[in-house]
Amino acid sequence: MPAAQKKLYRFCHFFNQKKALIVYDCMNTVHNTTKEKNYWSSRWEAGNTGWDMGSVSPPLKAYADQLPNKDLRILIPGAGNAHEAEYLHRQGFTQVTVLDIAPEPLAALQQRVPDFPAAHLVNENFFEHAAEYDLVLEQTFFCSFPPTAENRKAYAKKMSELIVPGGKLVGLWFQTPLDPEGSRPFGGSRAEYAGYFAPYFEVLTFAECYNSIKPRAGKELFGVLARR
Ligand SMILES: C[S@@+](CC[C@H](N)C(=O)[O-])C[C@H]1O[C@@H](n2cnc3c(N)ncnc32)[C@H](O)[C@@H]1O
User: Fold this and answer.
1) Minimal CA–CA distance to 40: which of 98, 112, 125?
2) Which atom of ligand 1 is nearest to the CA of 30?
3) CA–centroid distance, residue 77 to ligand 1 (Å)
């Protein structure tokens, strides 16, 4: 690409990113539970759930398969159809909590897996949740809410409040640029994410995921972060 064209391209990219940030700034914060709940419920009701892999996520399965303690207190926030929770439950994990702001996927899980403890299904805004966990599993939750720095800092802080010292946050985060048109999944970079986690977590692993599903290959980071 000629230098002048490169320069113009960079300018347009920068401008689009700025435009996107303005769009995001006008969106609600994650603390507006009613608005977020209505948005997600309407997607569930319409069956607009293109993110759903239909079975347990291979990287999270591989991580779970090497855990010796089946009594770990595990939270899966923004769990959706919660295939990971179903898998963990069937493997004998006893303390798996599934949390979602929309009631629809929780009801579906209860129907699909009738012996999953009803008390472990929580219909709440993650950002209002209060409890203690040894392990939180992340998958396509972080990328689902408006990607302002304020929201992302609130996510890291809330994770630090929910996870006990020595506990872990493990999961997948997209390493893709933000879509200038403002559509999901909302990505970012390792450097950006590491900045949010730095005050609370020690990074044990945070690298490109080697066992992503095919459509996400090269697009996601696998992280294991230990609560200080
Ligand atoms: C993109 S979907 C991912 C679902 C699931 N993790 C998966 O990988 O299939 C995001 C999920 O997060 C839920 N969600 C969005 N914002 C939330 C919030 N603030 N608190 C709890 N759940 C939320 C939505 O209802 C939806 O089920």
Assistant:
1) 125
2) 19
3) 7
Per residue in 9-27, pLDDT (tens digit) is 343 343 344 444 444 444 5
Question: How many structural domains compose the chain?
Answer: 1
Ligand 1: does its nearest atom lie under 6 Å from the Cβ of 125? Answer: yes
Question: Which atom in ligand 1 lies closest to the alpha carbon of residue 143?
Answer: 1
Which CATH number do you get for residue 48? 3.40.50.150
Cα of 13 from ligand 1 centre, angstroms: 29
How close is the Cα of 218 to the center of ligand 1, in Å?
22
pLDDT at res. 7: 44
Domain that holds residue 218: 3-227
Report, as ranges of residue numbers, the positions in the chain whose pLDDT lies below 70. Answer: 1-27
- How remote is the CA of residue 183 from the centroid of ligand 1, in Å? 15
Quickly tell me which residue has 């972060």 as its tokens. 225
Residue 5, CA distances (Å) to 15, 149, 171, 180 in order: 15, 31, 39, 20
